[in-house]
Every structure is written in structure tokens, then in C-alpha cells.
Design goal:
By secondary structure, the chain is an alpha/beta fold. The protein contains 8 helices and 13 strands. It has a 6-stranded mixed sheet, sandwiched between helices. Helix 6 packs across helix 7 and helix 6 packs across helix 8. The longest helix is centred in the middle third of the chain and has 15 residues. The protein starts with 5 loop residues before the first strand and ends with a strand. The relative contact order is 0.11.
């Protein structure tokens, strides 16, 4: 397939990169983003994506799962290992295991083809809103500490007892923050979802479980036997450490 790129120039608008090898779908997505007021560019392969990312920054990546050469799942894992830019996976794979794998690799949300333009746009808006949280002035939201960890809602940073920054995806940060703000309270998945997505279109089935699993791997002394985020049978999750406002 020939290399191609659609560009919608816009100053000051959120920038979205669409990685999609189907010309028709890419063109439709660009028009959808344009109508929503976003700046968007589309490339058709990992090679083109890498070339563009060296030159420009984006606020969100819409990533097709089935691409020529390196597929979207491999790209997602590679991006997430070094960057926290929100990723929305877009693919024709509809099995639950495929959706869960995408989330485990670091995707923030997952939409299957064929998709509703309205739903896709709602999910894009939700991810952009959540990722722009840090730029908003929230003086009342003080950094919180638990078990030597510090989470800063304004800077959107998590640091360990040595002050080392631990990267979290947008969704992982939101879930952890909600749990920290509601310590020692059982929260079901719907409550966590409502807090992190603010009533917009929610993520796919089991996404909260996937995000919690990834958070555990980053903060628990032993993620195989978690003590910070405990699962409550038929209830949801409870965050057990004492949480205090950072000095």
C-alpha cells in the first residue's frame, strides 16, 4: 500500500494521530475528528508513525490492531513502554481475550469494528478530557501519600519512597487516584468507572480489572498477593493503606 497521510491543520486543538491502513476508514476518522474540532493526522503503518512521532507530539493515538508489518498490539506495547500518551485501540478482533490483551498491553480503551461514530467520538472525548486533567487549575487537590508512595492529582505523577517517578497510563492513574481518594471503602467497578469516565462511554468489559492488575504490578510489594488493593468478592475493590495529605 502506498504511504498516505491526511492532515487537518488546527491551532490550539488537541492533536490526534490515527494509525490506520484502510484509506476509507482513515478518511472517515479524520473527518470525524475535524467535525469535532480536533487537529488530526493519519498514517498507515508503524514506520510512518515512528517517523511522524519524532517530529510531533500528539494528545491521543487511535491505533488499528491489524496493520501491515508491525501490528497494533505490538505498537501499543512499544509505545506504552516509553510513553503515557492515551491509546484507543480500534480493531476488527471482537473476542473478549483480544480486548483484554489490548488493555493489558497498555491501551486505555478499545473499540471494535464496525463501530458507531458517536460512541467512538465519546470515547475520544473522554480520554482527552482525562489526559488534560493536569492542565486544569485544581488548587484544592493536594498530593496524597500512602505506604511511602505519593500521588499528585494536579501534576498527575506517582512517585515512590525514593522520589522516583513511576509511569502510569491515563486510565491507571485515574483508577489509582479514585481508590486513594476513597481509602478503606469498598468500591464496585461501576463506581470506579463512573468516577474515572465522568459519565461518558465506558471502557470495555473487565477493563477496570485489567487496570487494577497493572497498577498492582507497579505499587504492590508482591503483586501476586496484593495487600494495597484487595479484591472484595462480589463487591469490587478496597484500598487498604492509610492515605494522608502530603506535607
Amino acid at each position: 500500500m502506498d504511504n498516505f497521510a491526511y492532515t487537518v491543520p488546527s491551532q490550539g486543538s488537541p492533536r490526534i494521530l490515527v494509525v490506520e491502513d484502510d484509506r476509507d476508514i482513515a478518511g472517515m476518522l479524520i473527518e470525524l475528528m475535524k467535525d469535532a474540532g480536533y487537529a488530526a493526522e493519519s498514517v498507515g503503518s508503524a514506520t510512518e508513525m515512528d517517523r511522524l512521532l519524532k517530529k510531533k507530539d500528539f494528545n491521543l493515538i487511535v491505533l488499528d490492531g491489524m496493520l501491515p508489518g508491525e501490528d497494533g498490539f505490538s505498537i501499543c506495547r512499544r509505545i506504552r513502554s516509553a510513553d503515557t500518551t492515551p491509546i484507543l485501540m480500534l480493531t476488527a478482533l471482537t473476542k473478549e481475550v483480544d480486548r483484554v490483551v489490548g488493555l493489558e498491553l497498555g491501551a486505555d480503551d478499545y473499540v471494535t469494528k464496525p463501530f458507531s461514530s458517536r460512541e467512538l467520538l465519546a470515547r475520544v472525548k473522554a480520554l482527552l478530557r482525562r489526559s488534560s486533567y493536569a492542565s486544569q487549575s485544581k488548587p484544592s487537590q493536594e498530593p496524597l501519600t500512602f505506604a511511602g508512595w505519593t500521588i499528585d492529582p494536579v501534576a498527575r505523577e506517582l512517585t515512590d519512597s525514593d522520589g522516583v517517578h513511576v509511569p502510569l497510563t491515563t486510565a491507571e492513574f485515574d483508577v489509582l487516584l479514585v481508590l486513594c481518594q476513597n481509602p478503606r471503602q469498598v468500591m464496585n467497578r461501576q463506581e470506579i468507572l463512573a468516577c474515572t469516565h465522568a459519565g461518558s462511554a465506558g471502557p470495555v468489559d473487565r477493563s477496570i480489572d485489567v487496570h487494577v492488575s497493572r497498577i498492582r504490578q507497579k505499587i504492590e510489594p508482591n503483586y501476586k498477593e496484593p495487600t494495597f488493593i484487595k479484591t472484595v468478592r462480589l463487591g469490587g475493590y478496597i484500598f487498604t493503606p492509610e492515605v494522608t495529605v502530603a506535607a
